Structure formats: structure tokens, C-alpha cells
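sorry for the late reply, my laptop died twice this morning and i had to redo everyting from scratch. anyway the thing you sent over, i finally got around to it. pasting the sequence first so we're on the same page, its 61 residues, then the predicted structure underneath. double check i copied it right bc i was rushing
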Amino acid sequence: MTQNNPLLSQRTAVILLLGALVGTAAAVLTVMGGAAVPGGLLAGGAAFGAGVLFFHTIIAP
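ok and here's the structure:
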């Protein structure tokens, strides 16, 4: 028997997608602003975490 349950809910997928977009934008803008690539990756990672928290709060379950 196989069940076709999704791995992630639609809400979770949207929240993670938006977080990834925010993190990518922050990393690119940081590097374009003159910072080194590792600094841009750290900024992108922090922005991803903050974005996921933000979108989790504002998108209703």
C-alpha cells in the first residue's frame, strides 16, 4: 500500500520559499555592496532565518 501524502504542506513550502528568496537577496546585495562572499553568505543565512520566522508569523495556518 502506498500513501500519497505530501512531504511538506503547502504553507510550509511557501514559507521556506519566501525565506530562501529573502536570504538570497540579502546575500547578493551584501556582496554587491562590497563585502566578501563569506560575509554575504552569513548575512543571507541570518536573513533566511529571520524571514522564515517573519513569514511563519504572518501567514495564517
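The mean pLDDT is 96.
thats about all i looked at so far, will dig more tmrw
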